[in-house]
Amino acid sequence: MSAAANTMLNERWVNAFNAKDWATERACRTADYKAHMSGSPAPLDAAGWDAFMAGFSAAFPDARIDISDAIGTADTVASRWTLTGTHRGEFNGIPPTGQSV
User: Fold this and answer.
1) Which of 30, 68, 78, 93 has the greatest count of CB atoms below 10 A from its CB?
2) Mean pLDDT, consecutive 10-residue segments, the chain of 101 residues?
3) Separation of alpha carbons 64 and 94, rounded Å
4) In whole angstroms, what is the distance from residue 81 CA to residue 98 CA?
């Protein structure tokens, strides 16, 4: 993929996340997708990521990502973004606080 195409794919993923369009979010990932998450004993595969996203979006139903900057190459995209939302459901064993994040 070109740098522009990779950067657009990153933006497509963020837009799908913001719209809670999980089919499009899933389509932005490869079949061998792995997510390396802090606190997770092993990388999450596609099914693990789907479960994480379901739990996260239930806990933070108004979560939104805003991209500040993105830089892409043919095989890498780095983006700087801010996620905001409200903790309205249990997440990782923490009961809802109603606090903004």
Assistant:
1) 78
2) 90 96 94 90 94 95 96 91 98 96 95
3) 20
4) 22
pLDDT value at residue 38: 87
What is the pTM (predicted TM-score) of this model?
Answer: 0.88
**CA 75 → CA 25, 85, 92, distances in Å?**
19, 30, 32
Measure the CA angle with vertex 10, ends 100 and 45; round to 5°. Answer: 80
Give the three-state DSSP class for 6: helix
Residue by residue, DSSP assigns 55-67 as: HHHHHSTT-EEEE
Give the C-alpha separation, 45 to 72, whole Å. 24
Instruction: Please classify residue 14 by burial: count the beta carbons closer than 10 Å to its beta carbon, then call 0-12 exposed, 13-18 middle and 19+ buried.
Output: buried
How long a stretch of residues is the chain? 101
